[in-house]
Amino acid sequence: MLSDVEALVLLEAFLFAAGDPIEKTKLADLMDLSTQRLDLLLDQLKRRYQIDVHSALRLSEINDKVALSTKAELGESLSLLFDPRNRQDLSQASYEVLAVIAYSEPVTRSEIEMVRGVNSDSIVSRLIERGLVEQRGTLDVPGRPGLLYVSELFLADFGLKSTQDLEAVDLLMYDEVSEYADEETERKLKKLSEENSDRKLEETEDHDVKETLVIAIDGPSGAGKSTLARELASRLSILFLDTGAMYRALALKALRQGLNPADEAEIQQMLAATDLDVGLAPDGQRTFVDGIEFTQDIRTPAVSQAASDISALSVCRHFCVDLQRALADRQSLVLDGRDIGTYVLPQATVKFFVTASLEIRARRRYEEMLQKGENGNYEDVLLDMQQRDYNDSNRALAPTKQAEDAILIDTSGRSVDDLVEEMLDLVKKRANVNLNVPDRD
Q1: pLDDT at residue 141, rounded to an integer
Q2: Which of 247, 262, 283, 369 is the least buried, fewest Cβ under 10 Å from its Cβ?
Q3: Distance CA 19, CA 21 (A)
């Protein structure tokens, strides 16, 4: 029987050789160990990496799998050492996604998220835009997920013929990296270390500063909330979450299944078997239900009415709100809806209530329909919007209303550019007060 020292050496060797996450049961079988002893060894290995300040590795556990991975704080230093031209300004998370695709290709988005443990859709979208990742073909399974590969551009920048040559980057053997003798790189690493130390000191001194900026934009239908939210998010370089798309997607599923969107019992049963997901990307939000993309199919009058009905149900509200709060907890966001500042995120950094007259809002919605080639007339749109206003304002759970600390914005007769400039100025003033962030040049 192997001693603990021998077993730890063998365990580390297996994890290095595997590269990708490996199931604990498979690891136990390979090492001829019980799962209980394997768990004890994994705990010892994890503590060893935590205690050893010179170790660049950490042990990651993803559901029933384990893997060795790079400590996140070393991403900037590693980028200097490997230094491919198209990765100089990539985040550590982006490089991590690239590595998952490179070593597992072809790979689906869900498989990337299984390895990383977080939603990676926005990162994948950016990598595709930069030409480092490409999608070729789909699996013939429900939802038809696309297969992702690293591109020829990615390989060329690393000077590689295939992904099989990426072992040194994947395993990150730091005993070899430490022998790198390039003086220019050493100089850069020293400068980076000094900058990181200064930044940590600033963070310690400004410990009261909130790390995320969450902006809530509420208001009635057709007021221009989504347009302003997208522009504001773009100008602030943070993500826009279209909360209404969530309810629209659930409403569309109900309609396709022949359910009544206003029937609580029917919708509760549907939600028990529903997987709602959103992919956040700089160019917009993609909405998925049960692995199928609904993004292009949820902007019709029938879905709008059904969304108003289904969003009034408490079971549906809780279903979506839990997801919205989880997203806002971990990143800066702009969210628009009917009750973001009053119910979903009452602690939002800045709140706006955007409105316009009923007639102007109906005219905007009618013109949108004409631009899309849809049939309809202005009077029907006006009546439909009037009914939606009543439903949203009189529902039992979190009705649409202006939060006490929300800033009122009337969009009637004003351009988007003017409105966004005003809101940016208000965000700066309100955020500075709330976050105690000093003005910077």
Answers
A1: 67
A2: 283
A3: 7
